[in-house]
Amino acid sequence: MYEYLEGKVAQRTAARLVLDVNGVGYDLLAPLAASFPEVGQRSRVYVHMVVREDAHIFYGFPSSDDRDLFRLLLRARGVGPGIALAVLSGLSREDLVRAVLDEDPKPLQRVKGVGKKTADQMLLDLRDKAAELAGGRRELMTSHAALTPFTPPDPAEVNAADAIAALMSIGFTDKEAKKQVDRARETVDANDLEALVRAAIQG
Q1: Nearest 5 degrees, angle CA 63-CA 168-CA 155?
Q2: Could you report the per-residue pLDDT of 42-78, keeping only the tens digit for each?
Q3: Would you say 71 and 133 are in contact if contact means Cβ atoms under 8 Å apart?
Q4: Which strand (E) or helix (H) includes residue 95?
Q5: Cβ-based neighbour number of residue 68 at 10 Å
Q6: CA distances from 8 to 18, 32, 37, 96, 108 (A)
Q7: Which of 36, 73, 185, 192 has the fewest CB neighbours in a 10 Å radius?
Q8: What sign does the CA torsion over 141, 146, 152, 156 have?
Q9: pLDDT tens digits for 142-153?
Q10: Would you put residue 113 in left (φ > 0), alpha (ψ -120 to 50) or beta?
């Protein structure tokens, strides 16, 4: 699985980036207004790849934190790559965290493609992952300490998100990947990412 690509920015639009890596142009979908360098400059782009029958789709992010937030959003039921990308395009990390902590679906519903049912499901599924959404930034949690005390991200939960991303990169759907990983967590040590992925693939 790809961690990042490094090369020269060949093309740049609001939601798309073409990165020239040693003469090979990688076409990546990206959040709107993501902070990439200008055309002609070098950049390291953190990637998430989705493998489908008719295409290999790359999603690109300026930092590993942004990419990991995208993967975390994919863990919410009913949220695929398109919706996750739209959320990152329409909301800052801070606004997303506050919406989750306040259990307020309205900011999410302002994102194109996110209806009330999907917004409510996202709040339900992400409520216990507020610390991961905050990226370890304690100041985002301060005003909500009484509702959600700050705790460091659970390594087992981080591994589960990475395992789901790994399965999706080799062709599993979002729903299938989550089901396989949840089942694998019942039989292996969730702190061992390699064992978790292997068990999830084997079913």
Answers
A1: 60
A2: 999 999 998 887 888 999 999 998 898 899 899 888 8
A3: no
A4: helix 93-102
A5: 20
A6: 9, 19, 9, 31, 34
A7: 192
A8: negative
A9: 444 444 443 445
A10: left
